[in-house]
Design goal:
With about 150 residues, the chain is mainly β. The protein has one domain. About 10% of the residues lie in helices and about 50% in strands. It is built from one helix and ten strands; from the N terminus they run ββββββαββββ. A seven-stranded mixed beta barrel has the order 3-4-5-6-8-9-10. The chain starts with a strand and ends in a 6-residue tail after the last strand.
């Protein structure tokens, strides 16, 4: 089971599927399809170096594209959000790949500053973000999209 927590709200996801592209290059792109309440939500980013096998994902650092993080968080929360993982001085989020029965476990936690202009949260404190995702690996594409 996969789970995402933002502040005091938690969502259980029924499915997580990872697909990687440009795996023969020095940096691969990844897309993670997350199923929640019958809807597919996306998270994306890069991993270095491009993995040659599923085993190479174990221990790899998956950097998250923060635009996709904002889109995912906004879809779950039902309102616009701009998050700054680690605060505005850091503003980065990464998963470390670990072995899992489904393929790869992606877990990360961070306290996030957020854009106060959007009034996403009702308090003026950092918001805790916690990911624990157990993803099946759909494909490792050597080049561009199939």
């Amino acid at each position: 089971m996969s789970r995402i927590r933002i502040g005091d709200q938690t969502w259980d996801l029924s499915n997580a599927t990872l697909e990687l592209y440009h795996c023969r290059g020095p940096e691969a792109d990844w897309n993670l399809a997350l199923t929640h309440a019958g809807e597919t939500l996306w998270l994306a980013g890069t991993v270095m170096p491009g993995p040659a096998s599923i085993e190479a994902l174990i221990g790899a650092e998956f950097t998250v594209d923060l635009r996709s993080l904002d889109e995912l968080a906004g879809a779950l929360l039902g309102r616009s959000v701009t998050l700054y993982p680690g605060g505005q001085g850091v503003c980065a989020l990464a998963f470390r790949g670990a072995a899992s029965p489904r393929g790869v476990r992606l877990a990360a936690a961070a306290n996030c500053d957020w854009d106060r202009y959007l009034e996403t949260f009702d308090r003026d404190q950092p918001v805790a973000l916690d990911f624990d995702l157990d993803a099946a690996v759909a494909a490792l594409h050597p080049g561009n999209l199939p």
